[in-house]
Design goal:
The complex is a heterodimer. By secondary structure, chain A is an all-alpha fold. Chain A has one domain (2-427): MFS general substrate transporter like domains (Growth Hormone, Chain: A), CATH 1.20.1250.20. Chain A has 16 helices and no strands. Chain A has helices spanning 14-49, 53-74, 77-80, 82-101, 106-134, 137-167, 175-192, 199-206, 224-258, 263-291, 293-311, 317-331, 335-341, 348-378, 388-410, 419-427. In chain A, helix 10 (263-291) runs antiparallel to helix 11 (293-311), helix 10 (263-291) runs parallel beside helix 12 (317-331) and helix 11 (293-311) runs antiparallel to helix 15. By secondary structure, chain B is α+β, with helices and mostly antiparallel strands. In chain B, 38% of the residues lie in helices and 24% in strands. Chain B contains 4 helices and 5 strands, in the order H-H-H-E-E-E-E-E-H. Chain B has helices at 2-17, 23-35, 48-54, 145-175, and strands spanning 66-71, 75-76, 83-95, 100-111, 116-125. In chain B, a hairpin with a 4-residue loop joins strand 4 and strand 5. The longest helix of chain B is centred in the last third of the chain and has 31 residues, at 145-175. The two termini of chain B are 21 Å apart. In chain B, 35% of the residues are buried. Classes of the chains: A mainly alpha, B alpha+beta.
Amino acid sequence: MTELTHDLGTERGARYRRKVLLLVSSATFFEGYDSFVLSFVLALVLVDLGGTEAEAGWIRAIVGLGGLVGFALAAQADRIGRKRLLLITILGYTVCAALTALSPNLAFLTGAQFASQIFLASEWAVAITIVTEEFPREERGRALGIVTSMNTLGGIAVGVLAFVFGLLPFDVSWRIYYLLALVPLVLIAIGRRSLLETERYSAVQRSEAFEHLNHVSLLEPWKPEFRSTVAAVGIVTFLRHAVAASAAFWWAYYAQQEVGMSVSVSGLYLAAAGVVGAIGFLVAGRLMGRYGRKPVFEAYMLGTLIFGTWLFQIHDQLLMLPVLCLAIAFGLGSVAVTSAFSTEPFPTYVRSRAAAWCRNAFEIPGAIVAPLVVGLLGDHVSGAIGSIGDAMSLTVIALIPATMWIAWRYLPETKDVDLVAMDEAVAT
Amino acid sequence: MKRASAVLLLLLALSGCATRERPEGIVERWLSALNQGSAGEPLRYAGEDVSEAVLPRWRSADPGTFDVIEVGRGRPCLYRGPADCDAAVPFRVVLVDGGEVRSEALVGSERGVTDTIATRVFAVTPPGAQHELPSDGGPPIASAGVAGWLLALGTGLGLLVLAEGAMRLIRGRATD
C-alpha cells in the first residue's frame, strides 16, 4: 500500500511532465489533422481514384464508425497499461497514414481511414487519462486545456499546408498530406518509447489490494458505484459534442451557400477563428483549475448557446468573424472540461474504460447523428426547414439547455479530487 | 432511450414529410456537382448544353473552379417551351480567377416523347429585373419560421425532462 500514498507529481519533475504533454498532445493534434484533411482532399481523391459524391458520403460514414469501434481498443489501457497502448496507437496510426497515402482505390482508402480512426479514437482516451494521472491537481486543468487545444491546431495545419502548396508552381497530390504526417509521427513514436508508465497505474498494479478488482470487463464502469456518473458524463458529452460537431461540419457550407462567402475567405476565417478559438481551450484549462469544473462548464455552455445560435443567423461577413471566434472558443473549448469530467471522477483501475465509454460510446455517436439530422432538416431540396443556418440554430437551442441542466445536477465537482485517496477508498 | 429514439424518429419523419423538391436546392446541387467536374455528375441535374453554358469544358475542369456558389429564392416562371417551368432561380458563381457569372436557372419537368422527365434545370437565362441574392439583401431560399423556433424550444424542454427522468431512473437502480 505504500505506493498508493505517493503524492502525484512529486517523483517526476516538471521537465518530465512537459515531455509527457508534448508527446501526448500529438494524439489530439493528429485527430484534428486527420479529420480535417480527409474532408479537404476528398474531391481530389474522387478525381484521382474515380468516385462520385454519393460514394464520398459512404466513405465519410464508414470512416466515422472507426471511432466507435475504437472503444474496444481504448478500454484496454486498464489491462495492458497506458504507455503500451499509447505506443500501439501511434504505430497503428502511422501505418494507416502510410497505407492511405498508397491507396490504389477507394475501397482500400476507406479501409485504411477506418483503421486510422480506431487508433486515433483510442489514442485520445489514453492521452487524456495519462494527463489526468501524471499531473498534480493544481496543474491538471491547464494541462488538459493544452492537450485538447491541439485538436484545433491540427485542423489549422491542414489549411497552412494547403496555402503553402497553393504557392508552388506545380500541382501537389493529395497523397502528400498523408506522407508529410509520417515524419512527425515516426519522431513521436520514437519519443514515446522513453515515456514511463503513469505513477498511478504502476502503483495500482503493484498493490495487492487491487488484485480482486476487475481490470478487464468493459462493463466495469457501469457498476452501481460508477453508473450514475458515467451516464451523466455520457449524456453531457453526447449533447455537447452533437452541437459542436454539427456546427464544425456545417459552418463552411452555411457560409459559402447561404451567406455567399467565397471558399478562400471562409477558409481564411476558419483558420483565424481556429487560432483564436484555441485560446478558449487554454482559458478553460486555467479557469477550471481556479473556479472548478462545473461553473466553468456552465459558463462555456452559456457562451455556446448564445454565440452558436447567433453564428448561424449572421449574413454579414464582417460580423461573422468575431462571432465565429467566440463560438469556437466556447463550443470547442469546453472539451477541456468534459475531458476532466470523463477521467477525474473514476478510480485508476477503471479510469481508461470510463473515459472510453464517455468518449467513444457517447461523444462519437453524437458527432455522427447530429450532423445527419441537421443535414436532413436543412436540406435545400427536401428538408423540412430548408435552411442549414436555421436548422443549426434550432439544434443549439434544443440541445444545450439539457446539457447545462444535467451537468449542474448530476456531474461531480472534481477540482479538488485526490486520485490517491480515491484509489485507497476503492482498495479498502 | 425509447423516448430519445422517438424524438429522433420524429425529426427524421418531419424531414421526410417535406416531399416537395425546392427548385433552389436543385440549382444549388447542379452548381456544386459542376464544381466537382465529371466526378460530381452534373448531368443528373441539367443537360450538357446548360452545364456548358455556365462552365465550358467542365468535364476536364479541376474540382473547385467556383470560389462562390450562391442561389437566391426562386419566383414563378412564365417561360413556355419544351418544359413545364416551375421556377426561375437567380444564382451567381464566382470563378477562382475572379470571373463572375450571374444568371437565372429555369427549373422544371422536361416533356419527353412518352412522359415527363424528373425536375431539372433545363435552361439558363440572363438575370431578370428581380434578380436578388441573399448577399444583395434578398431573402434566403427558406427559413424555419416562428413555428420552427417554438418547436425547437419545446424539443429542448422535452429533452431536458427526458434526460432528468433517465438520470433519476439510473440513480434509483444504482442504489437498489
